[in-house]
Specification:
This protein has 389 residues and is α+β, with helices and mostly antiparallel strands. It is 37% helix and 16% strand. The two termini are 32 Å apart.
Length: 389
């Protein structure tokens, strides 16, 4: 097996296998598969000029790269192999870090053969307009720190619209625009119990209570919604309005489906201060910190100025961060993290920072030894390190 080993890419925190580079002359480009770890990570195909032509991620680097030499490999895979002269692999603690790292590196480096993930994709939220005495809910693709609350992210507008429609059909929240509201006259929705008609009697207590039920529903607390629908379905059945009862039954089924994928966050994403602990094995664990829309990843390989431990310390020390608006990379990380966690809940523990009075108290609840983790070196890979000038 002809394998020319180059220097190690970097030393990786506490994992047993350190990242490394394989350089194998074709046609035996993948002859060194036995040296590649069966672990999550990111891999890079480089051409003869040492330029990265493709970046990928894998739950198992060994299995993923083995697929490149499979007889059933697709055409794109064969084209990548044809262009490649070297393979670099970067092991990560968990699959989630590999997902985050791949997406960000593709945008920073822009490899020719990576078609997807080069641009930030559209993201959707449900927005609660707190600027109005009687807030309405709408779909938006922006999250601004403007005093409003945002729930999400949703991977496409259809997903956001499904939940938006469900909320409107269950809860009595106004659906009119501000111009219609100012007319002060109740509309048809009030007659069918889909609005409390605040435009007419201006009862903020009743409306805010209904809005609070919406917040509970968005946080995965579905019992109020179910009780309300079941009572309505019984009332329609007693009145022999079977078609309406069937419509409500369908809503109940939609709510039950929603329970299975209920929100990971019990707060709007713009106000959430939460730590996700992601375990791949007992020895390999990732920590992703969400602070009011900004994302910090423990021992992340880029954005070293986003110091994970400093952010945790600042939170408990009451330090005010001037840079409060999340960037596109934050929103992308939130979307990737939440979507991955929904599919891998058994690997994740969620810690709300407000539930702990200090960093030390939080550390006692975590699987890691916080003080020891603070001593681990931060690791940085600049995008320029992968480019040829």
């Amino acid at each position: 097996m002809e394998v020319n080993t180059l220097k190690e890419l970097i030393n990786y925190q506490f994992t047993a296998a350190a990242p490394f580079t394989l350089s194998v002359k074709k046609p035996k480009l993948m002859a060194g598969l036995g040296l590649i770890p069966d672990a999550p990570g990111v891999y890079y195909f480089l051409n003869e000029k040492k330029q990265i032509v493709y970046i990928g991620k894998a739950k198992s680097l060994q299995n993923r790269l083995r697929s490149y030499i499979s007889p059933s490999a697709i055409g794109k895979t064969k084209r990548i192999i044809k262009k490649a002269d070297q393979v670099k692999v970067q092991q990560t603690a968990t699959e989630l870090t590999a997902f985050l790292l791949e997406a960000e590196l593709i945008k920073l480096i822009g490899p020719r053969m990576n078609v997807q993930l080069k641009k930030y994709r559209e993201k959707y939220f449900l927005k609660v307009d707190n600027s109005h005495p009687f807030p309405s809910i709408s779909i938006t693709n922006d999250m601004l720190f403007d005093g409003n609350d945002y729930f999400g992210l949703f991977i496409n507008r259809r997903k956001a619209a499904e939940l938006f429609d469900l909320i409107n059909r269950i809860f009595a929240i106004r659906e009119c625009n501000d111009k219609e509201f100012k007319k002060g006259k109740a509309c048809f929705l009030a007659e069918i119990e889909r609005c409390t008609a605040p435009c007419e009697h201006e009862d903020s207590g009743e409306y805010n209570a209904e809005l609070e039920r919406v917040f509970d529903f968005m946080a995965g607390k579905n019992q109020t919604a179910l009780d309300r629908l079941l009572n309505k379905m019984k009332r329609y059945s007693d009145d022999l309005k079977f078609e309406k009862a069937q419509e409500v039954k369908e809503l109940v089924q939609m709510v039950m489906a929603q329970i299975q994928k209920s929100a990971l966050l019990t707060e709007p994403v713009n106000r959430a201060n939460v730590l996700f602990e992601v375990s791949h094995t007992a020895q390999r664990t990732d920590y992703v910190l969400l602070l009011q829309g900004r994302v910090f990843v423990n021992n992340y390989l880029i954005n070293s100025e986003r110091n994970f431990h400093s952010a945790l310390e600042d939170f408990y020390n009451g330090v005010i961060i001037r840079e409060v608006t999340p960037g596109e990379e934050d929103l992308e990380k939130i979307k990737t993290t939440l979507n991955w966690i929904i599919k891998n809940r058994h690997q994740v523990s969620v810690y709300y920072l407000k539930s702990y009075n200090s960093l030390e108290q939080l550390g006692k609840s975590l699987q890691w030894k916080l003080n020891q983790s603070l001593e681990l070196p931060e690791i940085t890979i600049k995008a320029d390190d992968f480019l040829v000038s």
